[in-house]
Design goal:
414 residues, six-stranded antiparallel β-sheet, five-stranded mixed β-sheet
C-alpha cells in the first residue's frame, strides 16, 4: 500500500470536521473532556464510511506527528499481539538493544555438569552445537550426570493467562533454561518418528510427544508438563555432545551449589535487537514472555516472576512513557491474555517511544506493521513510512467483524 502525499493533503482537509467526532486531549486533571455533540448532517462521507466498519473499536492515524483522525482514543481495548511492541520497548529500556542473554556451565569435583539458564529465548540446536565446540576447546571432562538449573525463573504459575495448554507452539511454557522455543520438531513417517530438522537430533522425548499424531510434520509445544522442559534441554545437550558416553548420562534438575565458578558463560549470538526483530516478525509468544520475565528479574532482582514482569512493564509505561495508569492493564507480555488492556492513546505513545526501532517491525510496502489477532480481537499498530519520520498509527477492534484492513484502506492508497 503506497501512501500518496496528495491523499494526505486531502485527508487533512476532509478530516477537519472529524474533530467534532474525536475525543479531545487530557484536561488539567488528566481526564479527557466530554466529546462535542455531532451534527450528523455535517459529517463527511468518509466519516460515515468508517463508522460503518466499527462496532466496538478505536483508532488513531497520524502523519509526521500531526493527528489526522481518531476514534475512541481513551477507551480500553484488548490489544492482542500488538502488545509485543510494548514488551519490546520495555526490554530495550531495561536490558539495552545490544544485550545478549547468557547461559552458564559448571563442573564439580565429580565431573558432573551443571547448566544454568538466564532466560535466553534463542537457545537453539545451532547455538548448542557452538557451545559444545567451545566447551571441547576448554577441555571439559567426561561426565555421568547432567544437572539442569532453572532457578532464575520462579513462576507463580507455569502457564500464563490466555494459554490453553494446546500442542500449538504459541502455548509453549516459559522457563529460564529452555531450548528450541520449547517446541519439539517431529516428523511422523510410515517407519516411525524422526526429527523434523537436520540440526536437531532425534531424542526420546519426541517419541513420547508423537503419540497420537498423524503422519506428517509437527512442532509440538511443551505446554503442560514443566518437568519435560528440563528433559528436553538435557536430552538435546547429550545428543549433540561431540563424544559418546560409555553409559547413559543421568539428567536431573538441580541448582548450582553456592560458590561454584563457571567454566564457561555463553553469550547468545543474537543481540536483543535481533531477537526483537524475530519476535515481531513471527509474533512468538514464548519469546515475548521470555523478555517480559527477564526484564522483571533485572529490574527487581532474581528470580523472575510474572508479578515482577507485570510491575516492570507497568512502571515503564507510566514512568518512561508517561501513560496514565487508567489507560492500560498488563497481565503478561505477549498479548495472549484477554485481561491485557490498552487505549489507542496508550498504544500511540508506545509507538512514539519505539520509533527509533521501527525498522525492527515487519515491512509491508509503505507500512511497518504488527498485527494482533484473537477471536473477536483485530488490531494493527505500526508506522506509515513517508519521506520524513515514520508516522505511527493504531487500529484496535474488539468485535466480531474483522474490518481492520478495510479501515486502513480508507487511510492509505494501495
Amino acid at each position: 500500500m503506497l501512501v500518496s502525499h496528495v491523499r494526505f493533503f486531502l485527508l487533512i482537509t476532509v478530516f477537519f470536521c472529524l474533530h467534532l467526532w474525536a475525543e479531545q486531549g487530557f484536561g488539567a486533571e488528566g481526564n479527557p473532556p466530554a466529546p462535542a455533540t455531532i451534527d450528523t448532517h455535517q459529517v463527511s462521507p468518509f466519516h460515515k464510511a468508517v463508522a460503518t466498519l466499527i462496532d466496538n473499536g478505536g483508532f488513531i492515524f497520524t502523519t509526521t506527528g500531526n493527528k489526522l483522525v481518531e476514534h475512541n482514543r481513551y477507551t480500553l481495548f484488548t490489544p492482542a499481539s500488538i502488545l509485543k511492541i510494548a514488551t519490546a520497548s520495555a526490554a530495550v529500556a531495561v536490558l539495552g538493544p545490544q544485550y545478549r542473554f547468557r547461559t552458564a556451565f559448571y563442573q564439580d569435583q565429580n565431573n558432573d555438569l551443571f547448566i544454568k539458564g538466564y532466560g535466553d529465548p534463542f537457545l537453539t540446536s545451532e547455538e548448542i552445537a557452538a557451545i559444545w565446540n567451545t566447551l571441547t576447546k576448554l577441555g571439559i571432562r567426561p561426565f555421568k550426570r547432567l544437572y539442569i538449573d532453572n532457578s532464575y525463573f520462579n513462576l507463580e504459575s507455569s502457564t500464563t493467562d490466555g494459554a490453553k495448554g494446546s500442542k500449538n507452539p504459541y502455548d509453549a511454557l516459559n522457563a529460564s533454561l529452555s531450548v528450541n522455543f520449547n517446541a519439539l520438531p517431529i516428523k511422523v513417517t510410515n517407519d516411525g518418528v524422526v526429527s523434523l530438522e537436520p540440526q536437531t537430533p532425534f531424542i526420546p522425548l519426541m517419541s513420547e510427544y508423537a503419540v497420537g499424531l498423524s503422519q506428517g510434520k509437527h512442532r509440538i509445544a511443551i505446554s503442560k508438563n514443566k518437568q519435560d522442559i528440563a528433559a528436553y534441554v538435557g536430552q538435546l545437550f547429550v545428543h549433540l555432545a561431540p563424544f559418546n558416553s560409555p553409559e547413559p548420562i543421568r539428567i536431573e534438575e538441580k541448582t548450582v551449589p553456592p560458590g561454584f565458578t563457571a567454566i564457561y558463560e555463553h553469550q547468545s549470538t543474537k543481540s536483543l535487537a535481533e531477537i526483537i526483530s524475530s519476535l515481531l516478525l513471527y509474533s512468538n509468544n514464548f519469546i515475548a514472555n521470555q523478555l517480559f520475565l527477564s526484564c522483571g528479574a533485572v529490574q527487581y532482582g532474581p528470580p523472575a516472576t510474572w508479578k515482577k514482569g507485570r510491575d516492570t512493564l507497568e512502571l515503564f509505561l507510566s514512568e518512561n512513557i508517561g501513560i496514565v495508569k487508567d489507560q492500560f492493564v498488563i497481565e503478561e507480555g505477549s498479548g495472549l491474555s484477554r485481561k491485557n488492556k490498552l487505549t489507542p492513546e496508550a498504544m500511540l505513545r508506545i509507538l512514539e517511544n519505539f520509533k527509533p526501532y521501527s525498522n525492527l517491525l515487519p515491512r509491508e510496502n509503505s507500512l511497518s506493521i504488527k498485527s494482533g489477532t484473537l477471536k473477536g480481537v483485530y488490531s494493527y499498530a505500526g508506522y506509515v513510512n513517508n519521506d520524513s519520520a515514520p508516522a505511527p498509527f493504531v487500529i484496535m477492534l474488539n468485535q466480531k467483524r474483522n474490518t481492520r484492513d478495510a479501515i486502513i484502506r480508507k487511510l492509505t492508497i494501495k
